[in-house]
Specification:
Blueprint: H1 2-16, H2 21-43, H3 46-50, H4 52-73, H5 79-85, H6 89-99, H7 104-124, H8 129-181, H9 184-191, E1 198-211, H10 214-220, H11 223-243, E2 247-252, E3 255-260, H12 270-288, E4 293-306, E5 314-317, H13 319-329, E6 336-338, H14 340-346
Parallel strand pairs: 4-6
Antiparallel strand pairs: 1-3, 1-4, 2-3, 4-5
Helix pairs in contact: 1-2, 2-4, 4-7, 6-8, 7-8, 8-9, 11-12
Length: 357
């Protein structure tokens, strides 16, 4: 903007060629032009980009005082015209503060520099006391309005920034809460309001685990002790599920459900990874908690989705889920009961024992 004004001024002087235009042209090209374009040139560097506001402040302050020097000491403007031309400080001052967002404190410093330069120049020209007083009052009034407007804009910008930060914090908190309940991709879909969420999987590994003897244990333990032991147990389950990169679905009483073969999991041998997870769960419960598990596993197609509006979760349905649940309920304590389909998928990498009918 200021560069455009400078170029138009040069064109005007070349066209009119008024008295003293040569000296004014030299002053404009040697002093004013570098001060106008230096902020833009410096801002192209990494240092200038970081200090752009300070560069603008220094450059514009230098322009103000250069204009004062031009009006007072250069013999290029007739004395009778100086009091009129010095009024150019007002639009330059207004444009500088309005166009450049440099913060309230820098704007205050810039405004003080512009007012000081104007008063220095205007009191040195041939003007009556009345004119000096009126122009000074105008400059102070305009400066106060512009600086006050800058202060208000900065306050509004800060309030907007704080509101944005608060919104981002609440969004992050909501995302973290959702990710504690849902897999991260499902949480993202919920936040982006992608409903309904319904997915079909052709080869899903389903694992159900159940604590043996939980009902008798619930009769003799206090509520606090029972909850504490279940919390410790399922916390270890969660850790092992993460290690094997499976996905926890839910707990149902003392039963635990996890699945493998979802799009966000590794693209490896999911049935074998599920068998390893099941064996680690058996060992963990036996060695760290002194208990036994029944585990049932099956692989096949299933449907998943989020239903309801309260306390919802990403759940799974279908024959594959039902078979895995039945395999768990009929498994022997401390053993992993697999379907024929899953045992065939394991191949020679796992030793399985036929149970019979």
């Amino acid at each position: 903007m200021m560069g455009s004004v400078l170029i138009l001024s040069i064109v005007r002087d070349l066209a009119l060629r008024w008295e003293g235009w040569e000296a004014l042209m030299v002053f404009r090209l040697v002093v004013i032009t570098p001060l106008v374009f230096s902020p833009w040139l410096l801002s192209q560097s990494s240092f200038g980009a970081r200090r752009r506001a300070d560069i603008v402040l220094v450059s514009l302050s230098a322009i103000f005082f250069s204009m004062a020097v031009m009006l007072i000491w250069l013999p290029v403007i007739p004395g009778a015209s100086k009091t009129i031309i010095s009024v150019l400080f007002l639009p330059v001052f207004a444009a500088a503060i309005t166009l450049f967002s440099i913060g309230f404190r820098r704007t205050l410093v810039l405004g003080s520099a512009g007012l000081a330069a104007f008063l220095i120049a205007y009191t040195q020209v041939d003007a009556s006391l009345l004119r000096v007083s009126i122009m000074s009052w105008c400059v102070f009034a305009l400066g106060g309005i512009l600086v006050g407007g800058s202060r208000r804009r900065e306050r509004q910008a800060r309030m907007l920034w704080l509101a944005t930060q608060q919104l981002e914090a609440e969004k992050a908190s909501s995302l973290k809460l959702l990710q504690n309940v849902f897999p991260a991709p499902i949480a993202d879909r919920l936040l982006s309001d992608q409903t309904p969420i319904a997915d079909r999987y052709d080869s899903l590994v389903v694992l159900f685990a159940d604590v043996v003897g939980f009902t008798p244990m619930a009769r003799v333990l206090s509520a606090e002790e029972l909850v504490r032991r279940l919390d410790s147990l399922f916390t270890d389950f969660d850790m092992l599920v993460r290690q094997h990169q499976f996905t926890k679905v839910k707990t149902i009483g003392d039963a635990y459900m996890a699945v493998g073969g979802l799009p966000w999991e590794p693209n490896d041998d999911r049935p074998l990874a599920g068998a390893r997870l099941a064996w680690d769960l058996i060992k963990c419960v036996r060695e760290s908690h002194g208990l036994q598990l029944r585990i049932g596993m099956h692989v096949g197609p299933a449907v998943a989705g989020v239903i309801g509006r309260e306390r919802f979760l990403y759940d799974f349905w279908g024959e594959t889920v039902n078979i895995a649940s039945r395999l768990e309920s009929t498994a022997e304590p401390g053993r992993i009961q697999l379907s024929d389909t899953l045992s065939e998928r394991l191949g020679p990498n796992a030793v399985v024992v036929e149970r019979g009918i």
